[in-house]
Specification:
Layout: E1 2-4, E2 11-13, H1 16-40, H2 50-70, H3 75-93, H4 95-103, H5 108-113, H6 124-127, H7 130-145, H8 150-175, H9 180-188, H10 191-196, H11 202-221, H12 229-246, H13 248-268, H14 273-296, H15 306-322, H16 341-357, H17 367-400, H18 403-422, H19 426-432, H20 437-452
Antiparallel strand pairs: 1-2
Helix pairs in contact: 1-2, 1-8, 2-8, 3-4, 3-7, 8-9, 8-11, 9-20, 11-12, 11-13, 12-13, 13-14, 13-18, 16-18, 17-20, 18-20
Length: 460
């Protein structure tokens, strides 16, 4: 299988050596997973499912690589791999320059002075975008361990994403042990997440970061775990930093939900139910305000600066809605040329629904989109069922009953709005929504169980 390289003049192909390195990589991953799961079984019996879920994830990585290689003629993932290989080769040639390139700012002088025929050059289209090139930088660490293999690095990234997702599964089961099987199926085996977050992509890195942040937060707030504050904040900052490097808007979307979760434990200690009931909405609003304040004062002057973010969102929305080169598989949305508050607010409900439940089945134009549409169909049915059975007030009370549910719903809704507002193109939308999808699916599973056996549930 050959992929035209638009920047080097030669063709990329998956060679036998690439396959051989990939096979060795998979064997090493499986051996590591076998020993890790066995060593954790006594302390955590749920690790008996670790290896089984990993096999599905590795299959997803293989399907992802072949889909991009054969159906999309390479796409972003191959460009990221080229960039990671060039940075990795720089490590072999001059480790000092490697770390300078890993943590420094990009400029075209370095592009022509640091890289050469021996290292290869990152694709120019990737190098000129900090967010795209940061994906190459992060992947270069994996490339040093698994060199010269596109398939091998794809499997490695898929494994890292799976390990983080398994931590998310452990987190939900710790809080809702009655539905372990349903949560296992809903978190570890979501087809969209198995596929889109299994390769060398920004979505894979974001999923890793979000899942690890949630796991670390739950462990920190758990009464059964010793509170090591410094370690906790170092890990939170590290994973948040990785997400911010590739998709800053995900951090912006997650921060209010995370701050609400952290404050929830404080509100929980209040004895007065009336005060507790009315205080939580103020805390949520306050965390949104604090998140926005922190963002405004730390975003700098880049494309995601506070002054530019709305303009960036509107440009992205118009581009995806009107650019004919993207094809016709998209939602029809209003192009907002005059960004007044009324125009933005009018688009909020449509954008949230779009991010949570579209594309619909009849809107799918490819197998990958159809799988996502099928997921959305069941999620929409479950959501309507929950809304009918619990009513709006009951559903809101249920969401407020547990901090992990509150986080999951707030994070899902905010990120769904961002994705739905800026990305009416279905092919991009199904990828961009994957960071919140495990949380949204888990919430719907817990809500349905809540409806079926309400008297039996006791939340921690």
């Amino acid at each position: 299988m050959r992929i035209n390289s638009i920047y080097t003049g030669y063709q990329f192909y998956i060679s036998m050596s690439d396959v051989a390195i990939a096979v060795v990589t998979v064997l090493v991953i499986l051996v590591f997973a076998f020993f890790r799961s066995n060593s954790r079984l006594n302390k955590q019996p749920l690790y008996k499912y670790y290896l089984r879920g990993l096999l599905f994830k590795l299959f997803g990585s293989l399907a992802f690589a072949l889909y991009y290689a054969n159906y999309l003629d390479g796409g972003d993932t191959v460009s990221y791999w080229y960039g990671a290989e060039a940075i990795k080769n720089l490590f072999y040639q001059n480790p000092l320059l490697y770390f300078q390139e890993l943590f420094g700012e990009t400029n075209w002088t370095d592009y022509f002075n640091i890289y050469n025929e021996n290292t290869g050059w990152p694709p120019s289209s990737i190098y000129r975008s900090a967010r795209h090139f940061n994906t190459c930088r992060i992947t270069s660490v994996v490339a040093i361990i698994v060199p010269f293999s596109f398939l091998g690095q794809t499997f490695a990234m898929g494994f890292l994403a799976y390990h983080a997702t398994f931590k998310l599964y452990l987190t939900f089961v710790r809080n809702f042990p009655h539905i372990e099987k349903q949560l296992r199926l809903g978190i570890l085996y979501v087809p969209s997440v198995l596929f889109w977050c299994s390769g060398i992509m920004k979505d894979t890195i974001v999923l890793m970061g979000v899942c690890n942040i949630v796991y670390e937060t739950d462990q920190f707030l758990s009464r059964t775990e010793s509170k090591k504050r410094l370690r906790f904040f170092i890990r939170i900052i590290f994973w948040g930093w990785l997400i911010f490097l590739v998709k800053p808007y995900v951090v912006i979307s997650m921060m209010p939900a995370w701050l609400a979760w952290m404050n929830y434990e404080t509100i929980k200690r209040i004895q007065s139910p009336v005060l507790k009931y009315y205080l939580l909405p103020f805390v949520v609003i306050g965390t949104f305000s604090l998140a926005f304040y922190l963002y405004v004062n730390s975003s700098g002057k880049g494309e995601f600066a506070a002054d530019n973010i709305l303009e960036k969102a509107l440009v992205s929305r118009k581009d995806f809605a009107t650019n004919v080169t993207y094809g016709k598989n998209r939602a029809k949305v209003e192009v907002i040329d005059n960004p007044t508050s009324d125009n933005i607010l009018r688009a909020v409900p449509e954008s949230i629904i779009m991010g949570l439940f579209r594309p619909f089945i009849w809107e799918a134009r490819s197998p990958a989109i159809f799988i996502s549409a099928l997921e959305n169909f069941f999620l929409l049915i479950y959501f309507i069922l929950a809304l009918v059975k619990l009513k709006l007030i009951g559903l809101i009370s249920f969401i407020r009953s547990h901090p992990l549910l509150l986080f999951s719903v707030l994070f899902s809704i905010v990120l769904a709005f961002v994705v739905g507002f800026t990305t009416p193109l279905f092919g991009a939308m199904v990828r961009f929504r994957t960071p919140f999808l495990p949380f949204w699916v888990a919430f719907m599973i817990i809500a349905i169980y809540h409806i079926r056996s309400l008297p039996k549930i006791q939340y921690k």
